[in-house]
Amino acid sequence: MPNIIEMKPYHQLECDTLPQIQRQVMEWIKNNRVDLLSSESLWNKVNTLELVRATPTLIDYCNKLGLKLREVALTVINQRNNAGLHIDELPVTAKMNIPIHNTMDSYNRWYRIPKEMFDSVGATENEFGKKYYSFTDVDYEKLEMVGELELLSPVIFNSQIAHNIILGDKCQLPRVVMACTFFNEPIHYLQD
Q1: Dihedral (CA of 140, 120, 126, 21) sign
Q2: Which residues does 131 contact at the CB level (< 8 Å), separation at least 6?
Q3: What is the pTM of this model?
Q4: Domain chopping of the chain, boundaries
């Protein structure tokens, strides 16, 4: 396996069925989990089987890419606060993010974290009992940015490179993104 940090931060995908996926996911939210639209948590686990059954276009899209879904979750931003700099929980490196609602003028950014800073932070446990790294107290503007993306189409991204979400002035809320993990992790998209 290649060095995670040396891999690309993201790879944009084409998706001619994105409007249908967005519509199906929003219908599922409104019919089953309307509470997510006012969630104060960035990361929201959902019943993967329920959501996947309600989004046949998502299944078709993943099949077209040769990817077998393991789990889906929804990231929701409801307040005009940027999502803090962090590294996601292991063992997953390559995730797919799909813009669902109000992602215009919001930006995912990836940063290189110096080893000494990384060593001084240590892992934090999230509400699901998984370890991840949070750099919320770090002035990310002093770090080297290695990637930036306005999430307007699906993207495979490297969740083991420190990243955050920056909201522009015109970003509407709530911002909803579907995060997908796979049994066959799509690392190949992140290799040069």
Answers
A1: positive
A2: 89, 90, 123, 124, 125
A3: 0.90
A4: 9-183
Pairing of strands 175-182, 94-101: antiparallel
Residues in the chain: 192
Close Cβ partners of 178 (under 8 Å, ≥ 6 residues apart) = 21, 25, 58, 72, 73, 74, 97, 98, 100
Check if the beta carbon of residue 140 is closer than 8 Å to that of residue 85: yes
Tens of pLDDT, residues 42-65: 889 999 999 999 999 999 999 999
**Residue linked to tokens 């799909």:** 98
Among candidate residues 27, 35, 128, the one with its CA nearest the CA of residue 76: 35
Sign, CA dihedral 19-101-36-127, equals positive
Reduced to 3 states (helix: H, G, I; strand: E, B; else coil), residue 171 is coil
For residue 39, what are its two tokens?
């969630």
- Out of 3.40.50, 2.60.40, 1.10.150, 2.60.120, which CATH number does the structure's domain 9-183 have? 2.60.120
User: Are 106 and 176 contacting, i.e. CB atoms less than 8 angstroms apart?
Assistant: no
**Closest to 95 measured CA to CA, from 143, 161, 42, 51:** 161
